[in-house]
From TrEMBL:
InterPro entries: DIOX_N, IPNS-like_FE2OG_OXY, IPNS-like_sf, Oxoglu/Fe-dep_dioxygenase_dom
Biased composition (Low complexity): 280-299
Domain Fe2OG dioxygenase: 172-310
One Pfam family named in its UniProt record: DIOX_N
Name under which the protein is recorded: Uu.00g093630.m01.CDS01
Protein species of origin: Anthostomella pinea
Keyword tags: Iron, Metal-binding, Oxidoreductase
Chain positions covered by the region annotation Disordered: 278-299
Keyword Metal-binding assigned: yes
Phylogenetic placement of the source organism: Eukaryota, Fungi, Dikarya, Ascomycota, Pezizomycotina
Length: 375
């Protein structure tokens, strides 16, 4: 039976927390522990100080409202090449090489807000709540910048706000607040839980990602042995790891995206993850993973994700840090990872060029349609 992933839990918001100490702890977890067990994830204890518990609950409620809107309302907001809007079931295929069918999920991507107004079409049901959405998105971005500052301190970057400055909130960027809805397996009878997934295996594109989940809702797994041949081994990532059960809200999961991994020479590692049907009733024959206690996949699943990106025009050139410069890949520099790194031989990309390259690969149909229309 696969064990739950041993992901460290960090408290970054304790009143008395000393920034340098927190940064050290964070970096230690991310580079040493994470490299040892090969997980590029970390839990942030959710004290409610950075993002209030009410704000998170409200965002989940808005997500329920949004996805239960009439289909025509959602279709009116269909996802565009700017990566904003609604994507229906199977629209996105996060792992096109392996999946026989697209992800069993719906998503809604929110780009920037102008003040408290959305800058994209949104369903009528959430129109009255634009200010709350804008505030939540901003709170997520601020938490990411706080983490990026801690990375800067921990990596000895000069100046330490190198990363956080590159993520100035007022500049155009690929940052996206995404609501996700995974319908219950009972309403997706074509799903074959032994081979299909709710979201295909992928690593995130940006610098860091925040993930908010609800207690009891299973599914997230991370790849344990990226360098082994087949079959891949997956470790479930519990929503509430031991020690956080009594916290006001479940911890926020943070993971490194490909852009930050690339930018830091692989010192900070992005990890492949997916959302499986593990724990659903129909999964009893599955060779896949089991779920942590008291979590299941039989219910609808909702998650909130914040993908943080640097400003579009940020050149992803060398990070001014001796630690990054002198990192030669260490144990992480396995040949497999290198051949799979699509950027290894490329010129210095800007953050936006990096994002466009990745989007094209996962929204095959959207791009094919637009290419056909252009012809
Ligand atoms: O829904 C989840 O738990 C994970 C979603 C995810 O990994 C993503 O959208 O990038
Ligand atoms: Fe992801």
């Amino acid at each position: 039976m696969p064990e739950a992933a041993a992901i460290p839990i960090i408290d970054i918001s304790a009143e008395e927390a000393d920034q340098a100490q927190v940064a050290k702890e964070l970096l230690f977890s991310w580079t040493r522990v994470a490299a040892a067990v090969e997980y590029g994830f970390i839990y942030i204890k959710n004290s409610g100080r950075d993002i209030s518990v009410e704000q998170i609950e409200n965002a989940f409620n808005l997500s329920r409202t949004l996805f239960s809107s009439p289909l025509e309302d959602k279709q009116r907001c269909k996802i565009e090449k700017n990566n904003r809007g609604w994507s229906g079931m199977h629209t996105e295929t996060l792992d096109p090489e392996t999946q026989r069918v697209g992800d069993f999920k719906e998503g809604f991507n929110f780009g920037p807000f102008a003040g408290s107004k959305a800058t994209q079409p949104i369903p009528a049901s959430i129109e009255p709540h634009q200010a709350e959405l804008a505030a939540f998105r901003f709170a997520c971005h601020s938490l990411c910048r706080k983490l990026l500052l801690l990375f800067g301190i921990g990596l000895g970057v000069s100046p330490p706000d190198f990363f956080s400055t590159a993520h100035a909130p007022e500049k155009p960027s690929g940052s996206i607040l995404r609501f996700l809805y995974y319908p219950p397996p009972s309403s997706t009878p074509t799903a074959r839980p032994d081979q299909d997934v709710r979201a295909g295996a992928h690593s995130d594109y940006g610098s860091i990602t925040l993930l908010f989940r609800l207690r009891g809702q299973a599914g997230l797994e991370i790849l344990k042995t990226p360098s082994s041949p087949s079959p891949p081994e997956w470790a479930p990532v519990p929503v509430c790891p031991p020690g956080t059960e009594a916290d006001p809200a479940s911890p926020i999961l943070v993971n490194i995206g490909d852009l930050l991994s690339y930018w830091t020479n692989g010192l900070l590692r992005s990890t492949v993850h997916r959302v499986s049907f593990a724990g659903s009733d129909s999964n009893s024959d599955s060779s896949s993973t089991t779920t942590p206690n008291s979590e299941s996949s039989t219910d609808p699943r909702y998650s909130l994700v914040y993908f943080c990106h640097p400003a579009d025009d940020t050149p992803l050139s060398a990070v001014p840090s001796e630690r990054v410069r002198s990192f030669n890949g260490g144990d992480l520099a396995d040949a497999d990872a290198k051949t799979k790194n699509p950027y290894a031989e490329r010129k210095v990309l800007t953050a936006n060029e990096h994002l466009q390259m990745r989007l094209r690969a996962s929204y095959l149909e959207l791009y094919d349609r637009e290419d056909r229309e252009k012809k």
